TrEMBL record:
It comes from the Eukaryota. PANTHER family: CYTOKINE-LIKE NUCLEAR FACTOR N-PAC, OXIDOREDUCTASE GLYR1-RELATED. The keyword Transcription regulation does not apply. The keyword Oxidoreductase applies. One of its GO terms (molecular function) is NADP binding. Residues 208-326 form the 3-hydroxyisobutyrate dehydrogenase-like NAD-binding domain. This is 6-phosphogluconate dehydrogenase NADP-binding domain-containing protein. InterPro entries: 3-OH-isobutyrate_DH-rel_CS (IPR002204), 6-PGluconate_DH-like_C_sf (IPR008927), 6PGD_dom2 (IPR013328), 6PGDH_NADP-bd (IPR006115), HIBADH-like_NADP-bd (IPR029154), HIBADH-related (IPR015815), HIBADH-related_NP60_sf (IPR051265), NAD(P)-bd_dom_sf (IPR036291). It comes from Chrysotila carterae (Marine alga). PROSITE patterns: 3_HYDROXYISOBUT_DH (PS00895). The active site is at K214. Residues 42-203 form the 6-phosphogluconate dehydrogenase NADP-binding domain. It holds the Pfam family NAD_binding_11. SUPFAM superfamilies: 6-phosphogluconate dehydrogenase C-terminal domain-like, NAD(P)-binding Rossmann-fold domains.
Amino acid sequence: RQPRARARFDQPTLQYSHRNQNCSTDTESRQTTLDTRRNMSQIGFIGLGIMGEGMAKNLIKAGHTLAVWNRSADKCTAFAAGFPDGTITCCEAAAAVVKSCTLVYVMLSTPEAAKAVYEAADGILAGVSETSKIVDCATLAPEDMIRLSKQVTEKGGRFVEAPVSGSKGPAHNGQLIFLCAGDEALFKEIASDLDAMGKASFFFGAPGAGARMKLVVNMTMGSMLCALGEGLALAESASLDPKQLLEVLDLGVMANPMYKLKGPKMLAGDFDPNFPLKHAEKDMMLSVALGEQLKLGLPVAKAADGVMKQGCADGDGDLDFAALYNATKKQAP
């Protein structure tokens, strides 16, 4: 792997640092992992969905044993079955994970899920003590992250928000980008874990700042994909070859990995979910709400949110967010 990027945002300057990683043979890597696992404490992981499963696997590859919990218990059972060596312990409740592990990563899909899992009688907060370290990787509203941070720290625990930029593939391949805020000392303590799960990590300051950056990133990404969908729809309606449009875009200043990946999938109707449309719409809605709080109109983001809402209303919410292409092709009344 390439050296991992790490950055801390201190206004008005930005400082970068890189950590070098030594290469070894596969045999050496396997032995190192086994030896390391014997000396590493168990950590917790709550939420084994599209993103969480890949992230948890990369923590295991890094040498950790895991205590896990998921709202759907069958996912825990299936996940543990892939590691018959006792690497995985399935817990009956989120509180049990927190009580059994000093460090716990949380990856839940929606604000509603986060609130339910944190505040349940046997939820995360029920297990938090003065030794607890909670790292929440979900995409939530800034005020949600601020609330969670306060709830954890009021019980003596420590909290880092670490929403990720990336979807199913990067989560599986350890190529996520972590956008962190909160307890800076804890952020530094978990550096090796973030390196195992991602290609870069950033620290933005007080609780809520990481969530704000994540919403800005996803707003930009969603708006760009809506623009591509409209471009493909217009090209096709104008008797042009949309594949040639993708070729033209890829040779100019608008070339980017997302268009290269999602453009062909749009044309092929391949919408296997890496980032479900319903979650993309949730993020766009939160971005628009943030803009309204800051007195920004965000007309492009609002239009993109409308396209995504239409796609969800049409039954495409569980498909990949590239399925918004279907909504862009609908004829105007």
